[in-house]
Fold this protein.
Amino acid sequence: MSNPVTWSRMRTFLAVVDLGSVRAAAAHLHVTEPAVSSAVTQIARHLDTDLFTREGRGIRLSAAGATYADYCRTLLGLAEEAEAAVQAAGTARVRIGAVATAAETALPRLLATFRARQPQVEMSLSVLPRDELFAELVHHETDVAIAGRPPRGSGLVSVAERPNRLIVVAGASYDVPPPTATWLLRGAGSGTRQTCLALLEQHGWEPPFLTLGTHGAVVAAAREGLGLTVVHADAVAGALSDGTLRRVPVAGTPLDRPWHVVTNATPSPAARLFLEHVCDSDQPEDVRFHPRIRPRG
């Protein structure tokens, strides 16, 4: 076949997809713009289809391009996973992903103790919204994720879980009734945001919203008296103790939303080492995850 698609060309194509332009991809990859254009053109010729369409002065991913990008992510992720699978577990790498709140609360001590126990295993951590995190797992770009329950039918597997509760909090002096209060929301793709919106819909409330994006920004805004928010109890234990936040009673809360340890169906040896570690009975009860009798996804 002429013009075979290489790993390098796939990575170049995905850089254009992710960054939105040939110029940005070239700067990110430290290559020339003609080199990027050539790589994308060679793939398009090989597939005999248009991967991008013109949109004003820019470009937009075509339907065929979006489909191909999805496959590229999976193929590149599997290639990295294959390399890890044939290495000795003690010298391999585990790619860990977590939603922001888990990265700040449930994960740090586990990472520290895993590093002490397995110093030769290289670790990387990506902190992403839940939807993006699960997409990385599906594409084999991440080995293990700490987040909520994976979507049904995703092919992802929840192998262990740890108790976690969501509560409603506000600043110490904020005293507006929940039906009319301003509700502070996380950004799109956040499981906590979706839970908060579902709670409001359940009550039939249509209050004003203020979207602040990150967990830290939402909690800081609540402290300053900007409104109410749904948050993980573990993440605000200190603020509740020192009185800068107070718990607001709302029917239907607290909500049980366990943290899940999620993998794809073929975890690498290093990933399995990490899974064994987080479920080890020697772990303190407040950080340990409990294996699921029947892993599910």
The radius of gyration is 22 Å. The first strand starts at residue 52 and ends at 55. Residues 63-85 form the longest helix (23 residues). Residues 103 and 127 are 7 Å apart (CA to CA).
